[in-house]
Amino acid sequence: MASPTLLLLFTATLLLSSxxxxxxxxxxxxxxxxxxxxxxxxAVDFDAVLxxxxxxxxxxxxxxxxxxxxxxxxxxxxxxARLFNGVDAVHPGILLLTRVDCALKVNIDLCDRFxxxxxxxxxxxxxxxxxxxxxxxxxxxxxxxxxxxxxTHVQLLNWINIYLxxxxxxxxxxxxxxxxxxxxxxxxxxxxx
Length: 193
Hints:
The chain has 193 residues and is an alpha/beta fold. It has a single domain (7-189), classed as Glutaredoxin. Helices cover 39% and strands 13% of the residues. Helix 4 (68-84) links the parallel strand 2 (57-63) and strand 3 (95-101). It is globular.
C-alpha cells in the first residue's frame, strides 16, 4: 500500500497534468497569467490545507474538469486568485482561493458534504469553518455561504470587496510599484547605490 505522501504527490501530479487552458481562456499570453494560482485540493488534503492556512477567509470552487462552464470560468477565477495566492500575490494571507474537482472519485464524498448540485459552485467562509464542515440548502455553519453572483473576475472581486469591506483591484500591483516614485519630489536627490 502506498504511503499517504506518495498518494498525495500522485494525486497532485495527476490533477496538474489534467488541467489545460481552453480556447476561451486566452485572457493574456504572459506566462504569469497561465500559471495556476488557485490551490487545487482533494479530499485527502482539504481539511489540512484549510486548517493550516494563515488566511482568515477562503473561497472554494467546486467544479468538474469536463464541464464547459467550469473551463470558461477558470481564467476569471485564476485572475482573482493571482491577487491573493502565491509568493507573488499582492494581498497574501487575507483570502485563500481553492478548487475541488468533483469529477474525481476521491472527491465525491467531499462534494456531497457541501451539497454541490451544479458546476462551478463557489463557497465563501472562514477558513476554519470549511474544516470538517458541511453545507446544505437548509442551513450552513457560521458565515459559510454560496457565492451566486461571481461569474466573472470583476463580479467575484466586487463580492470579495463587499464581504471584506475592502477596495482591492486588479491594478493594485501597478499602484504599489509606483508609490516610491510618487513620494519623491526631486528624483535628482535620490542616490542609488
